[in-house]
Amino acid sequence: MCGIVGYVGVKPAMPILLDSLEKLEYRGYDSAGVALISDSGIMIRKTRGRIADLRKIVASVPADDCTVGIGHTRWATHGEPSDVNSHPHLSKSGRVAVVHNGIIENYIELREYLRARGYSFSTETDSEVVSELIDYWYNGDPVAAVRKAEQQLKGSYALGILFAEFPEQIIALRKDSPLIVGIGEGENFIASDIPAILKHTREVFRLGERELAILTRRRVTVFDHLGNQVRHETEHIAWDATAAEKGGYSHFMIKEIFEQPDAIAKTIAPRIDDELNIRLGFKSITDEDIRNINSIKITACGSAYHVGVVAKHFLKKTLNIPVEAELASEFRYDDPIIDEHTLVIIVSQSGETLDTLYALREAKKRGARVVSIVNVVASSIANESEEVLYTWAGPEIAVATTKAYSTQLALIELLCLYMAGIRGSMTKAEIDGEIRAMQAIPAGVQSLLDNVKSVQYIASLYFNCQDVFFIGRNIDYALSLEASLKLKEISYIHSEAYAAGELKHGSISLIEDGTLVIALCTYRPLLEKMVSNIKEVKARGAKVIAVINHDDTQTEAVADHVIRIPECKDIAVASLTIVPLQLLAYYIASLKGCDIDKPRNLAKSVTVE
Ligand code: M6R
Known about the structure:
single chain; alpha/beta; Glutamine Phosphoribosylpyrophosphate, subunit 1, domain 1; 7-stranded antiparallel β-sheet; binds 5-amino-5-deoxy-1-O-phosphono-D-mannitol
């Protein structure tokens, strides 16, 4: 997804902007650019490619006197990745430069509107219309021009704007796309995300929906869409600057995999008191409301959706009510049957995924009770949710999620036990037992991480394979979905997840000599059936890696390789099973030499539909 940065201060802006853009590389991008206020007006430098390419271009540019600027990493949506389509966009008059994250849905209509008024366009982007539209309305008052233009924009946008005639300020505006403001000493910043500016300041706030900020080096003034001045308390970011860096690991992904024991402990421990009572701190959803809930819908995208598919099984079993998991991109258009007795659980690491945000709005519109599980504090989904449960996983930089997935899973399990206690579907003693099992998850994950050698060995045998089939039943199938996504997104190996019982209804025709099948066999009630499925694929030539419980000898006897999960109670199995599969994906991608943290075509935060 596109990344925005902006600096206004007394230091040379160029190195700060380039450094900040590098911190946003994890979002995925295909081109980059900067705009600086110089003595002769707004100076733009931009290029297709990496920040390293941009660095080469700006190396000989005399810019030490430029102390105000904006920068952008572009993830192409409208128009191919190219120099001309890169941001910033400078209006033809040279008066206005804009960086944009989001999508202007009515840009074609706006182009016609502006063409009829003598404007022309040189890019294929939706964003260029913003700089020209602001230019069109500009009459000496930057704020008025931005607000006038905004009235005509449909879609989502975070914007950083420079006016040549106001060389000491940046204007920022956002709707449905994230933007933060960083407050420094005699300098201020804008950025799409915190790591971009952490080196310079730890005092930040998130710009609210349709808020406009005017940043000079001395002050930041914010107005809501009605023009009223708004005061924001800053949030102090306590992360060590290195928490947003790799800390000695080869990739963020492997660092984040190894952070899972700590992340899970941080997410669950503060919510369990000494008497093993669960404290979620709900403000508006009462015990009575929880007793009145008669169905649950979990909606999310990608891995967060996969958390929902796992959670569906234990929520249904524990609470004995209908539970569905639905992709957020489908939910909104599927006329969901929900009312005030439905609990909608929204799951999102970034809290900015647009499909998920829109699903949240749909759920609220239809009167559902909403609890969101989010990692990024004060993100859009968190801000708009009735109740928020934060996963305290810390910043997740790798595009492929690992620790966010694990903490989401643990938190949703805790929510399930909390509801079971209030609804009386489990006794206190039963819940206590489950909580103790959950408290043991970090140690279980750690023991898997202490023994990565066997996973590395298996990766070395199969990293050249073309296709992989993950199979499982019940929760193991739900986990297969995530394991398969993890492998394909970072290694580019074609992989699919199948409910094992479905194999013989079609997909078994794909199995031939040497095809790799990864069988998840931890769900004890259906173990016999999984063993039969393994035999079926082996009879057709498949090589089978089985993920099994610590005491399972039956599957071991039929599989080519096994990965054992340490002894644990059922509630912990999913949290442990996914770990070796994340590692397998990582080591395979690493052996293939893939760009693990920034897989091709992917973005960390998907803020377009
Ligand atoms: O930020 P979110 O949790 O809302 O993101 C949802 C998906 O885009 C995300 O989980 C994606 O599938 C991951 N990159 C997969 O590793």
